[in-house]
Amino acid sequence: MTVLRSILLNIAFYTNLIVRMIVFSPAFFLAKRKNAWKVPKDWASSSSWLMDKIAGATFEIEGLENLPEGGFIFAPKHQSFWDTFMLLPYLDDAVFILKRELTWIPLFGQYVNKMRMIPVNRAARGKAMTQVLDRTMREMEKGRQLIIYPEGTRRPPGAEPVYRYGIARLYRDLQVPVVPCVMHPGLFWPRRKFLRFPGHFKVRILEPIQPGMDPDAFFAHLTETMERESDKLLLETVRANPHIPLPEVTARRIAELEAADKADPARTSGSSRAS
């Protein structure tokens, strides 16, 4: 049944994406940029509905009150294709720094350019990267929300953290709050797999880290906070969904957290490995 549901969801998901991109393109490109957000946000909401109705996977968001007004850096865990789009309806005017090759994709590239996303040549150095930072600053001055995945690439739930220092440089240069966010959609929409699993999970938006900290201190605080809260939420999610098949790395981490929890139930495990 899981295989059948996964096949149906994948067909419905990509059909929904392609059809909406074509049908709503006139409205999207004729609208003012901020008004045009309605098209991708509605697509994200409809994708959430499909995931619920076909695969039986649902989610809830805790901590929406922690999102500041205006511009900030949104720093979520990155485990799945799911977390690249499902939270867009909850942000006013998001912006991504993305590899420039994505802007070359027919139609999708035009969508990206319309929303003033920031392309970067990852092989470039020096002047090119300075130009990206300057462009990012201009967009943030308009009160946009910059989405940055602190680990850079998708990681399985519970995997050893590999936070990249680039977010500390952006925190220093942009002088806006950073809002960490932990979640485990990778258990239900795994990376590099077509299977989609039923169940319920939480997205937990943490308190913003205000600007002004030393970049090194900020980086250590961000890493420790996200790993501690991520471990706590991972344990909650797995206990609430005992049917979910766990990747080997996730199963190992759960075993470590269970052992720590038995040794000291009042203690939230996970901060030691991030320090």
From TrEMBL:
Q: Give the highest taxon in the source lineage.
A: Bacteria
Q: Which InterPro entries match?
A: Plipid/glycerol_acylTrfase (IPR002123)
According to the entry, every stretch annotated as the Phospholipid/glycerol acyltransferase domain falls at 72-186
Alphabetical keyword list: Acyltransferase, Membrane, Transferase, Transmembrane, Transmembrane helix
| Keyword Cytoplasm assigned | no
Indicate the transmembrane segments per the record.
Answer: 12-31
CDD domains according to UniProt = LPLAT_AGPAT-like (cd07989)
Provide the GO biological process annotations.
phosphatidic acid biosynthetic process
Task: Show the GO MF annotations.
Answer: 1-acylglycerol-3-phosphate O-acyltransferase activity
Output this protein's name: 1-acyl-sn-glycerol-3-phosphate acyltransferase
